[in-house]
Amino acid sequence: MKLLRYVSLVSLLAILSIVTAEEEELYSDKYDYIDPMEIVNNDRLRDQYYNCFMNTGPCVTPDAIYFKEHFPEAVVTKCKKCTEIQKTNFEKLAIWYNENRPDEWTALIKKFMEDAKKQNS
């Protein structure tokens, strides 16, 4: 009986540690230094990133490739795995696009939601 309790306790602790580890896993902060406002305020850069994310143009920088890979999940999970800087930057982008290019923002979010559903299928 004691062995069964011990095994149950060890199993429970193992499961909790896995769940906790998954919750604490954040996206890499490798590109946290990038200022999204510099990108959105530059027509050429903004269009380059947007076209990359929408699959209508190439992704020409490593950070664009990285963001494109993780952005759909971040949208769906409301940035659950984002660093604090990433959360702030995401909010800045959302505000800027909603104020300046709402149709593009809506299209981008729609695409990312579809991409996230495909990844989870």
TrEMBL record:
Keywords assigned: Signal
Gene3D superfamilies documented for this protein: Insect odorant-binding protein A10/Ejaculatory bulb-specific protein 3
Entry-linked Pfam families: OS-D (PF03392)
Signal peptide per UniProt: 1-21
Sections of the chain in a coiled coil: none
Matching SUPFAM superfamilies: Chemosensory protein Csp2
Protein name per the record: Ejaculatory bulb-specific protein 3-like
Upper lineage: Eukaryota, Metazoa, Ecdysozoa, Arthropoda, Hexapoda
